[in-house]
Write a structure and sequence with these properties.
By secondary structure, this protein is α+β, with helices and mostly antiparallel strands. It folds into two domains: about 5-155, 2-Layer Sandwich (Beta-Lactamase); about 215-295, Helix Hairpins (Orthogonal Bundle), CATH 1.10.287. Helix content is about 60%, strand content about 15%. The protein contains five helices and five strands, in the order H-E-E-H-E-E-E-H-H-H. The chain has helices at about 5-50, 100-110, 150-200, 215-260, 270-295, and strands at about 75-80, 85-90, 115-120, 125-135, 140-145. Strands 2-1-5-4-3 form a five-stranded antiparallel beta sheet. Strand 1 and strand 2 (about 85-90) form a beta hairpin. The chain is rod-shaped and about 155 Å long.
Length: about 300
Amino acid sequence: MSLAARLALAFAAVGAVITVLVGVFSYQTASDRIHDELDRTLLTTAAEISAGATAVLAPNPAITGPDNDHDEAQPMVAQRIAADGSVQRVGGRPVALPTTPDERSLAARGHPGEHLYHNVTNGPDDYRVVTVALSSGHDALQLAIDVDETRHVLSSLATMIALLSGLVLVAAAAAGWLIARRVTRRLVRLTGLAEQVSSSGRLDVEVPVDGRDEVGRLAKSFDAMLSRLATSREDQERLVQDAAHELRTPLTSLRTNARVLRRFDELNPDARERLLEDVDGETRELTHLVDELVE
């Protein structure tokens, strides 16, 4: 996997984590606010009903729900709980709400305005229930509202957050890919130049040096290295040429003396002595040249 792909995946992973965290936090915050608002609405409506405004329990003809298992136009139901625990219907949806020991105790001994909340499932419907002790102190009002609409809202919110999270994730991956390509573009170019030098052996390639970051410094160092290698190669070639030139003269003399040595018996003593001295001198010269090359 290329460096650009790894960087893009890293961006996408970071984006996914952040998106999930933000999405969960947003959903939880919205859910808490909606439920808090629902509880405040229940408490306010219960106060209105206890004051005699029972019209809020009547069906609303302007509302039609998509479900057939209950009447969406009449989401609330209210009933009174007497001090002895008996229940009297007040109005609203025609369902009977169960009462708990805490609610009956609140009706019998609760202070006016004291209230409690709980959730109830009645058939296919779920309700949020508030029970408020009345000012008379001898009974309580129990008011419930169907929370299906609230759940529809939260479900739509969750779907929207999921879609937005998906879009953010895709955008993060795309941005990561673009940034990774921009960051690694010069590295890819340097890699190609290094492979070209390695395969062809050419040192005269042009290395673009731009930027003052780490990649720019790397390109500058790579260019300097190629320049030094080219200079070193030129020095080696010049040394070989000079060595060949210096070695050619004593080698030619040695070849000449070697041909003369074939007629060594025909030479007079003086000629023999000069020939041997000449061979010895050429040998010393070759030794000196070899020592210089080694050094």
